[in-house]
Specification:
Chain lengths: 137, 268
């Protein structure tokens, strides 16, 4: 095997004997996760169609698809993009900054929720019961 | 190494070479390797690849900012369009109610083109030019198929014709950045009609899927350039197919973003 690397300072070279099995396994895994997500999506659809949609159940299902999506993201990045095969320090310089998303998501969704509360209580100036939006049947 | 093994054809040398080969595999970098003492690339990766990773990280923040801003607006209103209601059409199926069907097709097209891309990278590792060409062509076809689907979906939404009750009379609206016919439904003249929904819906949907679609489009262009360069034998002369890997990183990122767009717009 010749080592197909771009610089003499780089010792990383893919193994010649590496089979495509890992790639196909990942493909099937991603497909199965996607099918489960679609099943959950249809479940949410049917819950909404029902007489008394259970908000808690919908929230639970939505949480599940979020977790499944993160699992998919992990497999795409780790196997397809080969990040899992890189040097640990490189992985960390990419993964650690992404932790900013934890704050980013929490802060902004919280802010959105706060707007909603203000919207429903006349900009917060009047303490009233939660005003039921007119459209809710 | 090949050359040496060929010239000497010596058993011990070949054995030694095989050990080296094992050593070079990604999984067997010895623990405690001093990466920062010079003479080695500290990340054991080329400048271009590392910078591609950092570009993708910054792009992830761009997409993240868009999606989070969309989430903020969704959290701030009492009513939002039901995706199963908005995206329930399929080409040539007329008005059949098929929630999630078309977007599943798009998702699988993109996942599959990701697989062909990683297979192209794999063939590149083996210096197999024909293999790289084959899988690059398949990846490009996948990308074009996805773009075609998106064009159909946008056209369907924009040219859609929905009865909406506006100021006491019925208007017929499509989904655009200024019109959202997916508000809650009310009874009007004994008929169930929609009212205008939150105006932000169209802007976010077309903005984010459009930005993603633009990434797919530029990915297809990059892949075409890579295919041409492969055909011209540029990478073979260079001795490695690292450019295919870098284009692959970008392409997988496009798939990665779609996973989140799929989640935020179609599933929840």
């Amino acid at each position: 095997m010749s080592t197909h690397v771009s610089s003499p300072e780089i010792t990383f070279a893919p193994v010649a004997g590496e089979s495509t099995k890992r790639i196909w396994n990942t493909f099937w895994l991603l497909s199965v996760i996607t099918f489960i997500e679609l099943g959950i999506g249809l479940a949410i659809y049917n819950i909404h169609k029902g007489e008394h949609p259970s908000e808690m159940l919908v929230l639970f299902f939505k949480g599940m698809v979020c977790i499944l999506t993160l699992a998919k993201a992990y497999y795409i990045v780790s196997i397809f993009m080969h990040l899992g095969d890189e040097v640990r320090n490189l992985i960390m310089t990419i993964v650690v900054p992404l932790c900013l998303f934890l704050w980013f998501i929490t802060a902004f969704l919280w802010d959105g929720d706060s707007w909603k509360k203000l919207r429903n209580t006349r900009a917060g100036s009047v303490k009233t019961e939660q005003v039921t939006p007119a459209h809710q049947k | 190494m090949d050359l040496l093994a060929g010239i000497f054809n010596n058993d011990s040398l070949i054995k030694n070479f095989k050990r080296t080969q094992l050593y070079m595999s990604s999984t067997s970098i010895p623990a405690g390797t001093k990466w920062w003492t010079g003479g080695k690339s500290p990340f054991n990766s080329s400048y271009g690849k590392v910078m591609m990773w950092y570009f993708l990280m910054s792009d992830a923040f761009t997409f993240g900012a868009f999606l989070i801003s969309y989430g903020t607006i969704r959290f701030s209103v009492n009513y939002w369009a039901d995706p199963n209601h908005v995206f329930n059409a399929f080409p040539f199926m007329g008005h059949a109610n098929l929630p999630l069907a078309f977007v599943s097709l798009m998702t699988f097209i993109l996942i599959f083109s990701s697989v062909t891309m990683v297979l192209a990278v794999h063939e590149g590792h083996h210096m197999n030019r024909k293999g790289v060409e084959k899988y690059m062509i398949l990846t490009i076809i996948g990308g074009l198929a996805f773009l075609g689907c998106q064009a159909w979906e946008w056209t369907h939404l924009i040219t859609g014709d929905h009865a909406v009750l506006v100021n006491g009379h019925i208007e017929h609206w499509g989904t655009t950045v200024t019109k959202n016919p997916w508000g809650h439904e009310v009874m009007f003249n004994g008929q169930e009609v929609a009212t205008p929904g939150p105006i932000a819906f169209g802007g976010y949907f077309f903005g984010i899927t459009g930005f993603h679609g633009f990434h797919v489009f530029s990915g297809v262009i990059i892949n075409i350039v890579m295919l041409i360069k492969t055909r011209l034998g540029h990478f073979e002369q260079r001795g490695h197919y690292e450019m295919i890997e870098k284009a692959g990183l970008y392409w997988h990122f496009v798939d990665l973003v779609w996973v989140f767009v799929f989640l935020c717009f179609y599933l929840i």
